[in-house]
Amino acid sequence: MPKRVWQYGEVEPAWKRDRRMRAMLRERLKRDGLTMPKLATIVRVDLDRIWVPAWAQAKAIRDLTVTQSSVWLGRIAANVLARIDREAGGKPVLTPTLYRRCPQCDRALLGDEAQARWEMDLSYTGRQLPCGPECIERARALKARKKGQRKTDAGTEECGDVRDCEEDRQRAE
Ligand SMILES: [Zn+2]
After folding, report:
1. Which of 14, 52, 156, 167 is least surrounded by Cβ atoms within 10 Å, i.e. has the fewest?
2. Model pTM?
C-alpha cells in the first residue's frame, strides 16, 4: 500500500500530528546533543494453550519473570504471541503496563513507578537521581561490570574484574 500523503487543506488526524510534533522535537533536541526520555508500554502475556516458545523467551524483557506460560514482551511481539495462542484455540490474557528502566542502575520499573521516573527524567538533572535506597549500590556494580566487559572486548586475555580490583587498590594507596 502506498504511503498516505496529507494534501494541503486536508485535516491531519490528531494522533498523527502529535506523532509528527514529537518526532520534530526529538530531532531538534538530538541536534543539541540531548535525548528525550521514552516511556514505553510492555505487555504481560499469560498463555492458555501453548508454552512460551524459544523466540519469545529470547525477546522477553530483561530481569522480569518468565514462566512456562507467561512472559513480558514488547507490544508487537506480545500481539504475535497472543495470535499464535488464539490460533491454537487458547484465550491468552494480555496485561499492558508502562515501562522504563532506571538510567542509573538499569532496574526495570513498571506502572506508576515507570511514569514517575519518566517525569523525573524530563527535568534537567532528573536522570542523575537514584530510583530507590539500593540504586546507588546497584549502579556502582553495573558500572564495574561494564568496565570489565569493555576490557575483555578489547582483546585482553586477563579477567577484566581482576584488573579493576588492581586499579582500585592502586588508587586507594
Ligand atoms: Zn536505580
Report:
1. 14
2. 0.69
